[in-house]
Amino acid sequence: MLKKTAGDSYRLLAPALSSSSISRNRTEIERVTRIINDHPFPNHPIQPIFAKHIPLSSLSPDFVSEVLGRLFAAHSNGLKALEFFKYSLKTPKSSPTSDSFEKTLHILARMRYFDQAWALMAEMRNDYPNLLTVKSMSILLCKIAKFGSYEETLEAFARMEKKIFRKKFGVDEFNILLRAFCTEREMKEARSIFEKLHFRFNPDVKTMNILLLGFKEAGDITATELFYHEMVKRGFEPNSVTFGIRIDGFCKKRNFGEALRLFEEMDRRKLEATLQILTTLIHGAGVARNKIKARQLFDEIPERGLKPDCGAYNALMSGLMKCGDVSGAIEVMKEMEEGGIEPDSVTFHSMFIGMMKSKEFGFEGVCELYRKMKERSLVPKTPTVVMLMKLFCHNGEANLGLDLWRYMIEKGYCPHGHALDLLTTALCARRRGDDAFECSMQTVERGRCVSEPVFRMLETSLSSKDELEKLEELKTKMQKLNSFLPPPLTLLI
């Protein structure tokens, strides 16, 4: 499944902008993101900082959305994102966009700030009711399903209908409820809700595809196929989405032959072969270690009137990597760039994995690609950061680990806690407790706590009077921050 990133919406705007204006915009987004992440909230109020350094006149709807996208990708503290969104509401230029609202809601819900999320929904209900969409409903409901119980999720659904949206829900909202459970692979609960409520909501083919996707994501190919036949028996006509789900299920189970059979059946049924389905098959061919078929499927994309995107190139590169053809993957990356398609974080993640396993390229190849990534100012996703940090630190390259940390901080991001654990261990082992302390303090000041093992390592490494005073300051800030973080079992409804 291909996901839209914060950067995608930015690239859509790019053709209308000159390269210099694009560069200025990126620089300003990074500056504002750093201001938000660097501010020691909640120790000091953040709104006065906004007023001083971020003029309301500079906040366009697209700019606000881009900053919130960066905060989301950086796993920034949810309360800071909420403060920035509320500040943006003061601008006289225009109303907030649904995209900005949804990103803020997602950041809050992901950190389990459910009280604040409900309050934000209620505020939008009163002031900007047009922002309440099924997507915003899905964001909150999915997180409640993840962290809460079956009953709490149903109660949240009822609360949204009666108090937030204040309208009678139909099949679209019913599909969102089912998706919340299917996303968490809770198929017993999803099936129970379907049986209990389908008479009220009159399900459509999208409803059935959501349930089919849930069975597939749960990794049960037998249950997926059984439900497919039930779907047909109930009178629903399978579409391209239906077949795409089944194809992906067989690819993930390494049954590439069956996936191809379904693809051929799609052609016989005159169903549209989407770029996503072809990308899935290319990836499946790579998993099956069939790089010739992967390339053949990739070359079929333009023959079907489609244009390969970054996801399709990534699938081909990943397949070549799985077959041990790192040089071939590098050539595909060059081909992609020559075609005017910029590599994304997934591109680099796949290439890093391939080089790490390669005897020809190995650690040196990873380091060279890491430098290339930095030259492009591309910020890797959390799994890539953790993977690189582990590689650097385990290879005795604590300096490279620290360089990666500082690069992320410079770009306005706060690396994941596991990355800090790895870096602190490596630094303290080399008697560089001051550097480890600096990274830990940066984490806390960005609204995220450090783990108990990290703090214990700092206590062991820092022993002078001045250092102990700094540790006490860090501990005090952590305690204050903890008072603002949601408890382990927070009340959802």
UniProtKB/TrEMBL annotation:
DNA damage is among the record's keywords: no
Domain of life: Eukaryota
This protein's UniProt keywords: Repeat
One Pfam family from the record: PPR
NCBIfam families: PPR (TIGR00756)
Annotated PPR repeat ranges: 204-238, 239-273, 309-343, 344-380, 381-415
Family: Belongs to the PPR family. P subfamily.
GO annotation terms (biological process): mitochondrion organization; RNA processing
Protein name as catalogued: Pentacotripeptide-repeat region of PRORP domain-containing protein
MF (Gene Ontology): mRNA binding
GO CC aspect terms: mitochondrion
Xref: Gene3D superfamilies: Tetratricopeptide repeat domain
Family annotation (InterPro entries): Mito_RNA_Proc_CCM1, PPR_rpt, TPR-like_helical_dom_sf
